[in-house]
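Final report, closing paragraph on structural work. Over the funding period we assembled a curated collection of sequence-structure pairs, and we close with a single example.
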Amino acid sequence: MHSDYNHYYAYQESPNKTFLKTKYLSEHPEKGKSILMGSSNGGYINANLIEPGTYNMKYNFGLLAIHLQNIKTMIKMGVPIKTLWIGINDYIIWKDPKDYENSFERSLYRADFREDMKTYLHYLFRKPDVLDWYLFVEHYVLRETDIISNPQPHLEAKRREEKHLKTPTKWRAEIDAREPTLLHYDDTHYRIESALREISELKELAKKHHIKLVIFTYPTFFKSYLLYNQFAIEEFKRKLSNIMPHYDFYELNRDAFDGLKWQDTMHFSYSYGNYLIYSIKSGKNLVTKENIEKHITSTYKIAKKSLLEYFNDHRKILPVHESILKKLTLVKNKKIYELKKSFYLLQANRNFEILQKKDTIEVKLKTKVSTINLPKLNTKKSIVVGHFNITSSHTTLFRIYYKKSANGNYTERATFRKTLKRGKNNFNLFIPAEYIKWGLRVDFANTPGAYLVNKFEIIE
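Its predicted structure, as stored:
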């Protein structure tokens, strides 16, 4: 921790950007009239488009509670904030800020001698690691930087996008093949009310100090959207609209699927970040308590259309949360296959020891081979859904092999893979209908051990 805002060690940008940026603005209040806050997605936004000289306070995994405390500190230190834009991610409704109370990357600057001394001591007495050794023997040197004094992170994002635009087809394919980024996602615990209280406090603070406050939601990559509980996110949006107007870009639209709009599966592109700013300034995507229901209905219509367009073009197996199935109604829950009614498929496999009970199948896998060849199934739908609930004694790999044509072969390239954790695994898959017509091969595990197959069915 230091007050040298113009250097950084070569192996990292800075030890704690939220601490240093808050401290810097407290010492240079004239630079804090207009501020952009948010997560690392702020690095893909040209903050000067909000108004010239806007200070970009983005930091990795930005949380509302941290933003709130930083604003309080800056106001206490006399920073004359007039305009404040805050971009929020979906994870604010499940990620607890208390998890970062002892974080070396996100400790707060409070402009309080006792509190800040605790932070300094926290750093001083932390357990050394290999990077400290490299610094000690001068493997890394100090380099000049202005990432704190004049943060312009969008410039690197711009260069990367320009590179991707030179080979758009290649980049789209690369992004589409990547796994989704699920940011500390926990579908068993939500802190919606806590997040709303933080926004309410931000609103009151802005009103008291005559700050123009703009709240907007960041977009998310389609694969992440499909795995998140949209019931919880919808609840948050409704309640947020009753607190204050906000700009909502959290949609499953064409942009969520378009690889050229994304730097990776977590961050949008530079030009798309600028599009968000232009949209907000022109009043697009504004959500209020008067139009929230119409807005939510509209977003699901767009989501259904966009998802069908993607399937028509790509024909891939995709994991999907139960809430998406219920909201988009792409299937009618007519069961066309159930493994427990095809018990003979398991009995014919000598790699299994099996026992069928009323609602589950107990399987003891002797080898790494767990192949089940499903019968060819007929449907008039273009998409079907696979429901799976498997309790595993080990971390293992679940695979579905499919044929690209009626006379094709199973290959590793035409395979859906999912890691099953030890314990319960409940998941759903969108499956292009032609794959069940040509026959699926399912390897539900690749590790010897005990498994409970509680659900293994396909619906149309």
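Residues 344 and 372 are 10 Å apart (CA to CA). DSSP finds 15 helices and 19 strands in the chain. We thank the funder for supporting this effort.
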